[in-house]
Amino acid sequence: xxxxxxxxxDPGDFLSGSRPFTIMGIDPGTATVGYGVxxxxxxxxxxxxxxxxxxxxxxxSAGKRLSMxxxxxxxxxxxFKPDILSVEAIFFFxxxxxxxxxxxxxxIILEVAANFDLDTYEYTPMQVKLQIAGFGRAEKPVxxxxxxxxxxxxxxxxxxxxxxxLALAVCHARMSHVVDTSMKNATVIKVAETIRTERPRRHxxxxxx
Length: 209
Hints:
Layout: E1 5-6, E2 21-27, E3 32-41, E4 45-55, H1 62-80, E5 84-88, H2 96-115, E6 119-123, H3 125-133, H4 140-150, H5 160-175, H6 181-196
Parallel strand pairs: 2-5, 5-6
Antiparallel strand pairs: 1-4, 2-3, 3-4
Helix pairs in contact: 1-2, 3-5, 4-6
């Protein structure tokens, strides 16, 4: 498991009178599981907490890799204490060999969530792109920049798996009923319009300062 890239700001910075929720997004896989943690306060206020990946060696058997994912995810949940898990749904895979290990990893993730009595929600890549960038077929660099902007980060989160996980966390907040609709729509449009005027750029790290 990579060391989390985290933000140590005081959770008390949130708007008074609104209870913040901690959401952990999970981008499932066997070789790499991305995770991203955000704190969300109605109305549409986000705070980046941490992100990173769980990486399993290819030399391990499938069972041991899943066991490693389980142990690391339990450690992360214990550390960050999320209220909700947002997991990418299996929507479409061109390669049938890919869908099986991803499904196995998702099974482990759902089992761990159940052990912690965490509510778990699933979203397709198209749903995530629509909520983050305002367009269901947005390219990955556009979504990554939108995530960074929404979380007030100066740089794009790396690696991609971690950024995808953060997008899942933000997507859940925006899909839930606690987000103010007018505020949500205004933010999506503003982010999408800003990104159209810029070319995607590569960044080494994403850490709030």
